[in-house]
Write a structure and sequence with these properties.
Its EC number is 6.3.4.15. InterPro entries: aa-tRNA-synth_II/BPL/LPL (IPR045864), Biotin_CoA_COase_ligase (IPR004408), BPL_C (IPR003142), BPL_LPL_catalytic (IPR004143). The protein folds into two domains: about 190 residues, Bira Bifunctional Protein, Domain 2 (BirA Bifunctional Protein, domain 2, 2-Layer Sandwich); about 40 residues, SH3 type barrels (Roll), CATH 2.30.30. Helix content is about 25%, strand content about 35%. It is built from six helices and 14 strands. Helix 3 packs across helix 5 and helix 3 packs across helix 6. It starts with 6 loop residues before the first strand and ends with a strand. The relative contact order is 0.16. The protein binds biotin.
């Protein structure tokens, strides 16, 4: 069932649903989903492009938020848990799914979805956030399109053999997101941290985190209560706020 209080608009073609979010936010009074059936200038994290083979999901939730910025940023965990639940709902399986810090969703070890949070500033006396989600439902970009060392892109179709339209996926995701959002607002990150950790890829394994300035290799111990990646390295415990992670 479509969640109460959330609006929805579906666009045949859009440059980027996150860019569209910035355009429409001044006229909004509550949360609104934007679905782009074709997205021609999708944006990924760290300024990378996000390509969208036909039939994939490109959606952005435009959300009013009321917490300090470091808490608002924890919506990436809310969104990744919602994506995970949506995948379980459409495939009936959880055995091949995992979450990669900070906010990728993996199927059989390949990247099937990514999340891009962008602040939209203040409108109508409220702060707004764009939560952009790209999901490879039908096809994955060519492996040559991702940076060296990044996980191979995969699609739900190739890994699970499940065919889902973007509209069908939006219905499932919107409902999963609304549930996770309500839990986050009621209980804070403490209310979902264990759920996220129990779905985490490579917890307890040695991983590498690159921050742009530094590279840390160590055992992935946990995610702390501020959402930082905690690694046990040869030189001690490191809590890392933002990085790309390599397995
Ligand atoms: O780099 C990543 O992993 C994040 C990718 C986020 C892509 C989605 S697609 C829908 C929304 N609109 C955009 O332009 N980007 C996000």
């Amino acid at each position: 069932m479509w969640p109460e209080g959330y609006g929805r608009r579906v666009l045949a073609e859009v440059d980027s649903t996150n860019a569209e979010a910035a355009r429409i936010v001044p006229g909004l009074t509550g949360p609104e989903w934007i679905l782009g059936l074709t997205q021609v200038a999708g944006r990924g994290r760290r300024g990378r492009p996000w390509t969208m083979p036909a039939g994939n999901f490109a959606g952005t939730l435009v959300l009013p938020v009321s917490e300090p910025p470091q808490v608002v940023a924890l919506r990436s965990f809310v969104a990744s848990l919602a994506l995970y639940e949506a995948f379980v709902a459409v495939t009936g399986r959880s055995d091949m799914l995992a979450l990669k810090w900070p906010n990728d969703v993996l199927v059989n070890g390949g990247k099937v979805a990514g999340i891009l949070l962008e602040s939209l500033g203040r409108h109508g006396g409220r702060d707004w956030l764009a939560i952009g989600m790209g999901v490879n439902l039908a096809g994955a970009p060519d492996v040559g399109e991702v940076e060296p060392g990044a996980l191979r892109p995969v699609s739900l179709m190739s890994e699970a053999g499940v065919r889902v339209t973007p509209e069908e996926f939006l219905a499932v995701l919107a409902s999963a997101y609304a549930w996770e959002e309500a839990r986050f607002v009621a209980l804070g990150f403490a209310g979902l941290r264990d759920a996220w950790l129990s779905r985490a890829a490579r917890l307890g394994a040695v991983i590498t985190a690159r921050t742009g300035r530094h590279e840390f290799t160590g055992t992935f111990e946990t995610v702390d209560d501020a959402g930082n990646l905690v690694l046990r390295t040869a030189s001690g415990r490191q809590a890392i706020a933002a990085a790309d992670v390599f397995f």
